[in-house]
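User: Can you fold this complex?
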Amino acid sequence: MSDVIIGTGKGTAVGAPQPDPNTPRVNYLNVSHTLSSWLLTKDHKRIAMLYLFSISIFFAVGGAAAGMVRAELMFPRGSLLQSEGYNRMFTAHGVIMIFFFLLVAIPAVFGNFLIPLMIGARDLAFPRLNLLSWYLYMIAGTLGVTAMLFGGVDVGWTFYTPLSSMYSNGQVTIAILAAFLAGFSSIATAVNFIATIHKMRAPGMTWDKLPLYVWGHYATSVIIILGTPVVAMTLLLVVLERTFGIGFFSPELGGDPVLFQHMFWFYSHPAVYIMILPGFSVISEIIACFSRKKIFGYHFVAYSSMAIAGLGFLVWGHHMYVSSQSMYQGTVFSLLSFLVAIPSAVKVFNWCATMYKGSVWLASPMIYAISFLGLFVIGGLTGMYLAAMATDVHLTATYFIVAHFHYVMVGGTVTAFMGALHFWWPKMTGKMYPENIARYNALIVFIGFNLTFLPQFVAGYLGMPRRYHYYPAEYQPWMILSTTGSTVLGFGMIVPVFYLLWSLKKGKDAGPNPWGAKGLEWETESPPDPHNFHHIPVVTAPVYDYDAEAEERELQGEN
Amino acid sequence: MAHVADSHGHGHKPEGVFEQYEDLHQQQSTYVLGMWSFLVTEVMFFGVMFMSYLLYRWKYQDMFYQIHHDLSWQLGGLNTANLLFSSFAVVMAVRCAQLKQNGSVLKWLGVVQLCAFGFLAIKAIEYKAKYDHGHLMLIPGNNFQWHDTAIPAGIGKLFYSLYFAMTGLHGVHVVIGILIFGVMMLLYAKKSHLVQNDYIPLELCGLYWHFVDLVWIFLYPLFYLIPK
Ligand SMILES: [Cu+2]
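Assistant: Here's the predicted assembly.
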């Protein structure tokens, strides 16, 4: 048995057994085919695949709800829904997309799959807890979707009191219990990640050799364990008020509805970072790989994630400038909100500096990463308009807000998710998808996205309120543009389903490292073995050990 | 030179070490870290309640002071002493587990269970009294009744909402504690390999129990000992 030194060979599988050409290699996918081997699995990679399957379904349902909303908004007097139905539809879109897709997607799929591989561990620290989190998520998702599609919830994803606690009909209680369970699912995942990242790293994998992907998930997990219990409890109090008439938030009963807003946003602003930090961490990996350079300012990018996690808890009041919150409080919240721009900008500048003089390869994951940069910059900068109290009072509850957070959540997180899917698909399945189709599709997504949400900035600035489906006819051109864009975007989201599924059957074998990327996960086989590593690796190479100049020289020599 | 571990691990590892861990030490320290992370979420979970309490106590301090006389500080004090003693018993159980004295572990855990049931019994007496006065609204269809003309019914309801929500959530944690200590007693009684080489599972239950105890240490003065 010889020591295995990582980072010297190009894409050699760690400690791979002598290949026998007659029997196919055992990997985590083909190790067993029974249904129970999937439903009772404790393998983090299989649980990640379970998550990938289930979030895709919820994403489709949430997307269908968005399609209904956009179709309705084509005409100023509505076209297919009554007011009640419209309220239910945008609530369904918001709740499903936030609680069952955005908060979960990158950590539960790619975090689960990659963190043990990246740090050189055989599994997450608590595999049973990991499986439990998937079951909690599935129960929550099923409950939530049932409540919203068959009963109807019309309070928006924010569940503001006293509407949600006293006046709304419909299945608010069930929807809230679903969100509560989903919260516990993500707490379980976060506790698992924190314990894993602290305690399960391979020898030599020090904190400053940790891939930025892992740093990002660490920061995310810290936010989850600090924030998610708060919203879970707050929503539970709404349920208590609704069912037992306990008066925490209802002014008639002596309560204070603004208390709900404080506690809700104490979580739900940091929740934005739960959704975007994993996206950031994906982008760091992709940009380093396809620029063939170490991430510029590695430590700054790593610590900026922690800074965002910390600052994120101090800014919730910017959602409440038009509530009864005092003006002075608002000033402090405004100042702190501007401060969050600093660590976010640190990341963006460092990514740009990484690409500068890199050996840039415009593969499909990189196209997603670059469009992420553009879209996130717009999303982030428009956030500055909303952090400033004076402009926010004008823009609150208009389509400007809707456009802003879709630029961050869809332009940011969903784009990063697509980038991650294309980057690690060969690792997860061992197959390559048709790269050219994927590249053109990435462009279609980018165009469709901008066509959908740029017009909403204009409509919102001109004063069109969100959550209204009857609107003055002057806004109709913007709404038509937006609906057209959403059709293109929807098309761009459906195409990958086909070529990725096609690749499973007919795709070329990817090999351990199709992108020539660095990092422990690329040193395993594709798809990885059931226990990831035959021998726990010893890490000696620095993180992102790329050499752009050598890469370029090699390319020149070839041509 | 760092060592390279055998992937499949059979043979090397003592019983009770799961396959994702290299050795017992890694498993133990990971468990403890995981538990502390979970306790952080518990703090935030209760934090929402304490935040609500803070706001309404600050708004209605005088009336909260008036109402709190309805609660029996003697019974609350008894329960405080009870829980403090149960925490001591947990510490003794963990100590005996470290020394591998199975029998003593079981005895001390029995003491913990007695304390926990005692706590719930006293709580039941208190809840029953409030139920008789019509203050307990955690039963559907049971409307809140208020006869004190000096204090608006809304404030009375708010006080009791906080009281029942906070002590109720704490009570749920006590019940969960009884269940996990029950499982622990079973494991120690059956000499399961999960707890023979490894006292950490019991220590984790102990950490949880100390947390539950600590919550009560805050609840007791906040509800039973409100100063004028
Ligand atoms: Cu915010």
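Residues A 269, 272, 318-319 surround copper (II) ion (CB under 6 Å). Chain B touches chain A through 48 residues (CB under 8 Å).
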